[in-house]
Amino acid sequence: MDQQTIKTIKISDHFYNKCTQFATEQIPTSSDEYKRRGSKSSEKIKQDITIGKMAEVAAYLYLKDFCTMKKPDFKIYEKKDKSFSADLICEGYHFHIKSQSVSQSKKYGMSWVFQRRDSLLTKTKPEDILVLCQVDDREVEIVCIAHMEEVKNRKAIGEPKLKHLRGNKCTIYYDDLVSKKVNLNVIS
Fold first, then answer.
1. Burial class (CB in 10 A: 0-12, 13-18, 19+), 42
2. What's the half-sphere exposure (Cβ side, CA atoms, 13 Å) at 145?
3. Which of 33, 32, 38 is nearest to 163 (CA)?
């Protein structure tokens, strides 16, 4: 199914360098968690962290035109201080940013993977907004901004295609969001 892009954001050199530096500094505090999930390559871990932070920057650059919010957080947190809290908060709404590289999308379908214990899934609140992004080099496409309650109520969360991820993870597939008629842009 063809996706509709809400906005494509080109990440500047300044933010790209901040994202890659963040990823480099983040690896020591995240590698155990990634390894527990089956990721062993520190280069892949760095790439995943960079892509995630680029998506957060893109979401900020788009959403700041609609409301006042703090810039993305580039602080490195110790393992014990990490949480599933919102990436961005704007006028009472909690934006949870999820990313996927276009290369991964071509392999597995446009999808975003969650920890089953993520409070976004286990303790969803009306103010929780999901922002789903596709990242290709330095371009980030925002493809969905949806109320998480609606995503859950319409049963648009499923099992990962990869068997080794089942049990600890669940997945949102873009095609499921469309087929279950989830409002893909609650901002417009």
1. middle
2. 21
3. 38
φ, ψ of residue 143 in degrees (nearest 5): -110, -10
Task: Output the 3-class SS for the chain.
Answer: CCCCCCEEEECCHHHHHHHHHHHHHHHHHHHHHHHHCCCCCHHHHHHHHHHHHHHHHHHHHHHCCCCCECCCCCCCCCHHHCCCCCCEEECCEEEEEEEEEHHHHHHHCCEEEEECCCHHHHCCCCCEEEEEEEEECCEEEEEEEEEHHHHHHCCCEECCCCHHHECCEEEEEHHHHHHCCCCCECCC
Task: Indicate yes or no: pTM above 0.85.
Answer: yes
Both tokens of 54, joined, read: 């680029």
User: pLDDT tens digits for 34-81?
Assistant: 555 556 677 888 999 999 999 999 999 999 999 999 999 898 877 655
Domain residue extents for the chain: 7-179
Residue-level length of the chain: 188
